[in-house]
Specification:
The complex is a heterodimer of chains A (about 300) and B (about 250). Chain A has about 300 residues and is α+β, with helices and mostly antiparallel strands. Among the domains of chain A are: about 55 residues; about 90 residues, Chitinase A, domain 3 (Roll). Chain A contains eleven helices and seven strands. Chain A is elongated. Chain B has two domains: about 100 residues, Cytochrome c-like domain (Cytochrome Bc1 Complex, Chain D, domain 2); about 80 residues, Cytochrome c-like domain (Cytochrome Bc1 Complex, Chain D, domain 2), CATH 1.10.760. Classes of the chains: A alpha+beta (about 300), B mainly alpha (about 250). At the A-B interface, helix 3, helix 5, strand 5, helix 9 and helix 11 of A face helix 1, helix 3, helix 7 and helix 8 of B.
């Protein structure tokens, strides 16, 4: 059989379309098209970011397509009337909703009027808000333990206990008296006797046990730097000051001690996050600056 | 038999598609019912509560368990609260209160989050960046520690505890957040200092001293914008279920 004859036989073998079959095909096609239209229509009017005809279930209202979240509405109701939604009266529900719609309307109008151009409070609030949004992204990320440990190792100076010192600041009329007093204190003489014997006095600047930062504040940098290096029972060399010659007598000195990672972990986590936030905010600023067209007046370009 | 195969296959496929469609519609309907319900009433509806809390467990595992642990029991070494007990640091433990934390977080840098109170660092020159509070002396720190131990019913140095009580109620400014009776204020997240539940550490002398000396400021992220409204409500209901095992069993 030739090829042409073969083709003819194949054509004859095809099912002959009957009117019944044609109608069925048409019906299936129509049903498919209808289902497609329904799905597309539903998606069009319910998808996020599109203009919708119905209020999504998670919102209580749409104001120019801007949603008012149901969770915010419930929270506002509770804050205003101290009641849950289920206990609130219809008037209370309506009042809160009206207030929230009013606020949204005015916020939208504020955007139209570009109030940030004229109101410094709005400008400040906007700057803060954008910074907070950037920081909020960082706050969501939970750093892993190795990263925290590396951070702790690199910033150990931040995680020490504050040193504690108990000392007396004694003042004598001249160097001679002060040197004799130092020797007497060094050999274990009682403080009261030393003061009496060498015409001294307690300046009273130190008040019992003090943190290093407080002692520095009370003594001044020069005297404190001398005091913090002295051991328990140590006496400083005489230091001349306008009001006399000072001797520092240290009763107890507990220098700062590095806290272990476990002890300092919460502080490490906070510092880590704060540094990340600073870095992220700086990067954000760089990004904004780079994409902005900033022109600076000639006289300020140096 | 061969003639039956095709219609049977088509019928099965149709039934599967129908089942999927029905399931999808039912899920969608449940989600809508859930979102439209007042959060605090959901635990009384066994159908809605079961649906939501079950789904919330998945969100909890992926978003919350890294800090709170899979069981939700937290970790006092890291100041992560136990979500399975009835002691609530923020709010009163209603679904609405939990949902607020999930949405906006705690010290999360979200302007709507809880961020009013921060435990000052009393062993540094400026304990608080926002409040004018003087630092405490080492003796003062010990005294307040003794006072708090005494409030928790632990053995203390009575004279020192009395000094601590005076500092607590005056220069320390502790009363301002923790209230005069030291029972705390969940409206600002100030913990009760008189019970046996401790957010940080085990309530020992050293742990209390460290909290006062070095301060505390835990963080919970804001999930708004990262999770959908359904997911946030579902995870809130799941968290609620951790401390209310009977929730959802009573039908409204």
């Amino acid at each position: 059989m030739s090829k042409a004859q073969n083709d003819l036989v194949a054509l004859d073998a095809r099912p002959i379309p009957t009117p019944e079959r044609a109608r069925r095909s048409l019906l299936i096609t129509a049903a498919g098209a209808l289902i497609g239209l329904i799905v597309a229509g539903y998606a069009l009017f319910t998808a996020k970011g599109t203009s919708t005809l119905t209020v999504p279930a998670e919102d209580v209202a749409l104001v120019n397509q801007q949603p008012i979240a149901r969770a915010d509405y419930f929270a506002q109701l509770k804050a205003t009337y101290q009641v849950d939604y289920s206990q609130a009266t219809p008037e209370q529900r309506r009042k809160v909703l009206d207030d929230m719609i009013r606020e949204e309307l005015f916020v939208q109008r504020g955007k139209e009027l570009d109030v940030a151009e004229t109101d410094p409070d709005v400008r400040t609030a906007m700057v803060n808000s954008v910074e907070q949004m950037s920081a909020s992204d960082v706050a969501t990320r939970q750093p892993d333990e190795p990263s925290l440990l590396v951070y702790y190792t690199e910033h150990q100076d931040r995680y020490s206990t504050e040193g504690i010192i108990t000392a007396l600041d004694l003042v004598f009329p001249d160097s001679g008296h002060a040197e004799h007093a130092a020797a007497a204190l060094g050999s274990g003489a009682p403080v009261a006797a030393v003061i009496a014997n060498f015409q001294g006095r307690n300046s009273g600047t130190l008040n019992g046990e003090e943190f290093y930062f407080a002692a520095r504040l009370h003594l001044g940098d020069a005297l404190f730097d001398l005091a913090r290096k002295l051991p328990n029972g140590g006496v400083s060399k005489p230091v001349e000051q306008p009001d006399g010659v000072h001797l520092l007598y240290v009763l107890a000195n507990k220098p700062p001690k590095l806290r272990s990672f476990d002890e300092a972990r919460t502080a490490v986590l906070n510092d880590f996050r704060n540094d990340e936030i600073k870095r992220s905010t700086a990067q954000y600023q760089t990004f904004l600056t780079r994409r902005a067209g900033i022109q600076i007046a000639g006289d300020l370009q140096q | 038999m061969t003639r039956l195969k095709r219609p049977l296959g088509l019928a099965l496929a149709g039934a599967a598609i129908l089942a999927c469609g029905v399931h999808g519609l039912r899920t969608m309907q449940m989600e809508r019912r859930l979102l439209r319900a007042a959060p605090d009433t959901i635990p009384t509806n066994s159908v809605l509560f079961g649906f939501a809390a079950g789904r919330g467990a998945g969100t909890f595992r992926s978003s919350c368990a890294s800090c709170h642990g899979l069981s939700g029991k937290g970790d006092t070494a890291q100041g992560v609260p136990d979500l399975t007990d009835s002691d609530w640091l923020y709010g009163t433990g209603t679904v609405g209160d939990i949902e607020k934390v999930v949405y906006y977080g705690i010290r999360s840098h979200n302007p709507r989050g809880w961020h009013l109170a921060v435990m000052p660092v009393f062993a540094q020159p400026v304990p608080s960046p926002t409040e004018k509070i003087p630092p405490l002396t080492p003796h003062g720190l010990q005294a307040v520690t003794e006072y708090l131990l005494s409030r928790g019913g632990q053995p203390t140095d009575r004279a020192l505890a009395m000094e601590g009580a005076a500092i607590y109620a005056s220069s320390g400014g502790c009363y301002d957040c923790h209230t005069a009776d030291a029972k705390g204020d969940s409206a600002i997240g100030a913990p009760n200092l008189t019970d046996s539940i401790w957010l940080y550490g085990d309530g020992s002398r050293q742990a209390i001293y460290d909290s006062i000396a070095y301060g505390r400021q835990g963080v919970c992220p804001a999930w708004t914008g990262r999770l959908s409204a359904e997911q946030m409500l579902e995870v809130s209901l799941y968290v609620y279920s951790l401390s209310h095992p009977a929730a959802g069993r009573q039908q409204s």
